[in-house]
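hey so i finally got around to running both of the ones u sent me last week. sorry it took forever, my laptop kept dying halfway thru and i had to restart like 3 times lol. anyway pasting them below in the order u listed, first the sequence line then the structure token line for each. didnt double check formatting much so if smth looks off just lmk and ill redo it

first one:
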Amino acid sequence: MAIFEFKLPDLGEGVMEGELVKWHVKAGDSVKEDQVLAEVMTDKATVTVPAPKAGRVVKTHGNEGDLAKVHQLLVTLEVEGDAPAQAGGHAEASAAPVAAAPAAGGQGGGAPASTSKVLATPVTRRMAREHGLDLAAISGTGPQGRVTKADVVAALEGGEKNVVAAPAEQKARPAAPAVSSGAADERVPLRGLRKKIAEKMVRSKFTAPHFAFVEEVDATELVALRARLNAQLAAAGENIKLNYLPFIIKATVAALKKFPHLNANFDEAAQELVVRGEFNIGMAAATPDGLTVAVVKNADRLTLADLARETARLGAAARDRKLKMEELTGGTFTISSLGQSGGLFATPIINHPEVGILGVHRLKKRPAVVGDQVVVRDMMNLSLSCDHRVIDGSVAADFTYEMIKYLEKPDLLFLAMA
């Protein structure tokens, strides 16, 4: 028998840590190879971590709700025969925890500790740097005093207990008062996907100055075209039915080709707009755990029927928590649609580091003026949110009207696909 130390493997491009959402094993359990050991939540999705070998669990490292870094020891196994002492990728260089600055009100006379010695992930360091915060002045709540993204957000919101000896220009409004509870109330901890959504949305709103542009679409011809195409698919025995999303994706891609700066990511560190050469369209999908953005890769190369199949597959995988990491990364632009629950209009939050997100709203019959006549038409609204640092209002408006052109005259989509 041998001891096998299994470390948290790489979870995806740019992912340095994850929250331990749920343990599926405990000390003393026997496990088979590829059996699920734990669920780990990244800022992309919940992923399952399988056992690399069969054996007996000697010890699990970390509690549910803790942050686990990539290459951090996760599970100690007892396995048959000889085995390497470690597994799970390259071991991380050890670092002793460093105490944070003195408590508020203290008389620490020396210079603040170097930010580079504070335990924090690269994402957290960059977030603090972007907002002019000294990590050494923030009390970390993570393991071994690690400063987390939530700690930085609390500092930005003026949480006095988290910020220590901050310069006067960095002080924000007073900390929010505690919320009392009644006997009939229930407190629901913010964790798992919901917590990651909260962190990402706060970062997006703090980082990117949002603005929105809203316009209506006369989708009457689109409704008629969809009905005709579905009838043809049924007659041909195709086991697929088109909803409106494939048409919207095609119109989005056509507009992005004319306005490529919207098909981009903003590199905060380099202060550069990265205009993407691929059209990878994110679709926001509601799941039991919260909103997940699955990515339709190379959407410009797919037919309407292909898009219908792919969006249906990704939506089902999102609901069943079976999305792969590569299906959650690499997005260049996102579409958020709630179908008949989409309301009149909204101001969706940008899926940072993308620079634009399109909200698609409820399609319903409404009176409209055509010529000099008031007639009943199938109408819906589009809401486009953009990062005002790199996208001007005129560009957002022109992009939206380019989309509307294809949705109001959907036959043009077939020319765009040619």
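and the second one:
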Amino acid sequence: MMRRFLSGALALLLAAALTMTGRAAASAEIVRAFVYDGTLYTYVAIEGAEAPITKAEARIGTRTFPAAGRLETVRQAGAPVTWMLLVDNSNSMPAFREEAEAFAGSLAQSAGENTRFILATFGDAFSVAGEDVPAGELAERMEEIPFDETVTRLHTAIGQALDYFEGLPRERNELRCLVILSDAVQYDPDGGIPYEELLERVGHSDVMLHSVGFGDDQEALDSLGRLAAASGGLHQAIGGLTAEEAGTALKESSGGLFVTGFDLSGYTASGGTERAAVTFSAGAELICRAEAEVELPAREGTETPPPAQAPSLPASQTAPSGGTVPPEAGTSADGGWPLLPVLGAAAVLALILAIAAVLLAKKRKRAAAPVPPPPAEASGEENTAPAGIYMRLEVLQGEPNGVPADLELGEELVIGSGPDCGILLREEGVSPRHARVFFSGGAVWLEDLGSQSGTALNGAAVTQPTVLRSGDQITAGDVVFRLKF
């Protein structure tokens, strides 16, 4: 009887796996996608993802491509970023000189070694004032702009700035950003580039357009804002916030984008635009997905069938938080992604075995036991974080003693007052090796290491390894903090 019940349950499970759709718990937006040297690069904004991403895939047509490198943010990766500040040089701008200089100084502050600044102006004509301006000199170079042009060919200048970028040699997955500083008033006696044409070009360019608006011509500022929105960029109006705040916000939003590359080896294309869907997952759980139109260069080669199961990210590489499961073979009637292709054969088998174990346990009339805690010391490849998990430390009480806000969880992070601790807390009640955070069984765990004052999670004492979720409140001695991942 039990055997029939078990067989029926497994059959139902398999049928459900063929028809269920994965629902994204988080949201993702591809703000930039382009192909360079046989690799599809995407810059993705992910919101609301709490589980660590362990897999990323791109789908073009019927083909899927696993992530070819580290999955991390621009800030984490130290990815190359080129900023062009395109400054309105017209005679309506002198009143905003100080704000423009303050914005430039804020944007340039703490710029990474792979950050490049280009300073350009426009009025009657587009002009490059400096191609490699040191970050520390950017605001000073802004002081040299005369702001005396009587013609403002805004739309034409944006088109010429995009032309300029197209002529620059690209460095791998370089993020290219065009930042327009203007009161947004377009005055071009010759007409210039039609707005709708420029809007379409901005939307398809591999350059991300941002804008900083000055003045009170709301209609002009809204027009500039639509150009930024078409590019997935950020539009900010000075007045609602300070120039320094605008520079910091732009730097933070760009640095928080996830940059991912997908190797297109073996993929043939005749060129043109294709729809690419990028998915992120945590284990077998769909987290989020996003789609974008991508310009594909013509490629010759032999078409090869997609792998039976998409490989995970290499264990030697990093996968921070956020995610989605990749689709494999078509979509369901309501547009969702079939669960079986998403999970893959191995994941479905593991799920079936897990259900079987639960059913057998019920037969013996034993209550389902809780998931056993991971071993006291994480060891071996199965307990190592899939590629390093990006974490952000937020201290609510106490001092982090020089611990950086951005952390990476590899095998483990030890919390304590000892000099070798990954999270160093030299406060009252913190033991040399107080607790540890580690990855095991597809989850992040918190474990007390026999500390004198104990460890608490959301106010409850940690007496055994406990699953840690992004944003949980951790107390060690007199220090209270969160880890967001």
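quick thing i noticed on the 2nd:
The mean pLDDT is 79.
anyway thats it, ttyl
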